[in-house]
Amino acid sequence: MARRREARAEAAAADGHQVTARDNYFMAAVHWGAAQWPIHTDDEVNRFYHRRKRACYARYAELADHRIEAVSIPFAGGALPAWFHLPPGYHGGRLPTVIAVPGMDSFKEATVALYADRFLSRGFAVLAVEGPGQYEAAMTGLHMTVPAWARTGTACVDWLVRREEVDAQRIGLSGISFGSFAGTIAAAHEPRLRACAVMNTCHQPGWTAAFEQAWPTYKMRFMYMSGHTDEDAFDAFARTLTWEGHAERLSMPYLVLAGDRDELSPLECTEALLAAVPGPKQLVVYQDSRHSIGGVPAANLGPFAPTLAADWLADRLRGAPMTSEKWYVDASGKVTKTPL
Asked: Fewer Cβ close by (within 10 Å): the C or N end of the chain?
């Protein structure tokens, strides 16, 4: 599929059809990145797919309807790879900005939508980043550890505050799936962030459900992300994967969206995390939803989770007040709110 989309993009560009070329270069990049998912070693096949992904996305960036810049953020003697997006029609001024952390099976090129992106359309700049252990970062030897993620938020904010397009007083973080864990750790150690919103939770200390009860792919991928080849050594490492000792530092507004049947992270683990958070907080629970919120009546009839998170971040970054509370979205779409 990646090859087909790339060929379509090249043909369209040769014919002068720039919009068609743009769209297909984007889709080709996403397919090349998806092809990397089952490869858990830095072999030539993985690197070839990566090079094609970068090349197609760079061509997309040249043709996109908004400004996109390739970024390398100094980090631990190396660099975190990212793409920096400015909203369509941007002509100057300082913008609210979101650091977007993708999931374990996603990557920075797939983080910002081709059309009507939820953050860009709300006037945000977006720093789509891959932190330690994620795709390109792992390929450069920056492996996943909790201490590394504790430094990631600071590295990203340090880079952002030097940009003339960024309002340093309005920077937030969004994390999905793996990003719900890594982003929480990053936010806990960076007080300049004004808000943090995460969804599709990975909050179980030790990640037992993900590594021992779910598809083996998760454990295999995480071993690659953390630089482990010995399973016993990885099992010992997995015990360090906890928010405990970190969530207690979260003082900015913090939002979590979760399914009450999350097979990778039991809801009680998220509830324990929120009990430790001292700052303002909100929990939105979707009845019957599994890890990826959706496909159940609560998600179809209730608030659309990605939109809710984007609106919530917009409210927080403009300084709107909030109440710490739990929202339970039932199968009719009804939202019941209780104090948290």
From this structure: N
